[in-house]
TrEMBL record:
<dbReference type="Pfam" id="PF25967">
    <property type="entry name" value="RND-MFP_C"/>
</dbReference>
<feature type="signal peptide">
    <location>
        <begin position="1"/>
        <end position="38"/>
    </location>
</feature>
<dbReference type="InterPro" id="IPR006143">
    <property type="entry name" value="RND_pump_MFP"/>
</dbReference>
<dbReference type="InterPro" id="IPR058627">
    <property type="entry name" value="MdtA-like_C"/>
</dbReference>
<dbReference type="GO" id="GO:0005886">
    <property type="term" value="C:plasma membrane"/>
</dbReference>
<keyword id="KW-0732">Signal</keyword>
<comment type="similarity">
    <text>Belongs to the membrane fusion protein (MFP) (TC 8.A.1) family.</text>
</comment>
<dbReference type="InterPro" id="IPR058626">
    <property type="entry name" value="MdtA-like_b-barrel"/>
</dbReference>
<dbReference type="Pfam" id="PF25944">
    <property type="entry name" value="Beta-barrel_RND"/>
</dbReference>
<feature type="domain" description="Multidrug resistance protein MdtA-like C-terminal permuted SH3">
    <location>
        <begin position="326"/>
        <end position="388"/>
    </location>
</feature>
<feature type="domain" description="Multidrug resistance protein MdtA-like barrel-sandwich hybrid">
    <location>
        <begin position="86"/>
        <end position="228"/>
    </location>
</feature>
<protein>
    <submittedName>
        <fullName>Efflux RND transporter periplasmic adaptor subunit</fullName>
    </submittedName>
</protein>
<dbReference type="Pfam" id="PF25917">
    <property type="entry name" value="BSH_RND"/>
</dbReference>
<dbReference type="InterPro" id="IPR058625">
    <property type="entry name" value="MdtA-like_BSH"/>
</dbReference>
<dbReference type="GO" id="GO:0022857">
    <property type="term" value="F:transmembrane transporter activity"/>
</dbReference>
<dbReference type="Pfam" id="PF25876">
    <property type="entry name" value="HH_MFP_RND"/>
</dbReference>
<feature type="domain" description="Multidrug resistance protein MdtA-like beta-barrel">
    <location>
        <begin position="232"/>
        <end position="321"/>
    </location>
</feature>
Amino acid sequence: MAPTSPSQSRLQRHPLAFNARRLGLLPASLLLVGALLAGCSGDKEEAGQGPAAGASQAAQVDVVTVTAQDVPLTTELPGRTRAYQIAEVRPQVGGIIESRDFTEGSDVEEGQVLYHIDSRTYRADVESAKASLAHAEASLNTSSLQAKRYKQLVARKMVSQQDYDDAVATVGEDRADVASAKAAVSSAQINLDYTKVTSPISGRIGKSSVTKGALVTASQETSLATVQQLDPIYVDMTQSATDIMKLKRELSKNGKASSAPSKVKVELVLDDGNVFEQEGELQFTDVSVDQGTGMVTLRALFPNPDELLLPGMFVTARLVETVAHDAILVPQKAVSRDTDGNATAMVVNAEGKVEARVLQIEQSYENQWLVTGGLKSGEQVITSGLQKIKVGSPVEIANDEAVASATEDDEAGNTQ
């Protein structure tokens, strides 16, 4: 058996002293544990006070008060620009080109000389026609004098009636020769004038297909150049016959919509996305449908003072086809979709609480939705702060965008 140490022997001899010493450490441990538990419970109480206090406060949101108004419904149609007037320059007489008297790509005026054709033969034709006219006029003068003398002589029975009738007929023939000679002079002069090829319209001229020294013929198939008037300029658009028929049916059924005025204003969006600064006007809608495409052509006229628009450019035209009366517009940021795909919005009801609404949306209008059902004029739709609210919770309106917009418009008007 192993020997015991002196300390172990002392503890064995005095067990009460060992237990008393061990129990003396308990109060201090209990105090430390109690303090820790008290601190945790205090933190829990403070943490519990935050949500309780926040739940009693209403969330602040921004709203827009919707109002019924007349809204023009626009339609975007693809189109291409067309010159207002196009004239292909062709020679009316044949000959050698002596000179080209314009700069390619420049603006020309109506009647401006573009080409000179060798005119020597045509000038000679004019002189020859004038000589024939003079000969015919001389013959007419002689026959007229003879007819006058025969008239006096036939009354005295000094010439026969037949001779007098022949003299009168000769006068008629000579008068016809004079008229023919005058026409020949006019024709020769016209051909001489045609040796100066002029511009039939004012506009911008393109490249020339001939140069000095080229031989041209009268009314040839190949044009010498093309002149196009660019101010104003046409925009030809196409719309399906189905859409036009649908629009007419909606107008006949929907009492809250009306057709646009006859002179519809048209806005032009260029291929780069910029809006053309000039506003156009719809000129006409074609009365027939293209059998190959099923489309109907519409034409608008645009001022083009800077000639920014060139023929053949692709553009997008926005035009007003109908006007929706008593329509309601809602900002797109205030509308979302539920799991079923329905358009919904949050509305502040009369009790100041959040209410969900299912909306019927017709189409977009700028950055807003055109609502045809689910809202009434004067209701307040929540536009911001949606992440802080839920259906049935009270809210506090921080800003009404409709009121703010009206105030800004008034201030702008007063400043002007």
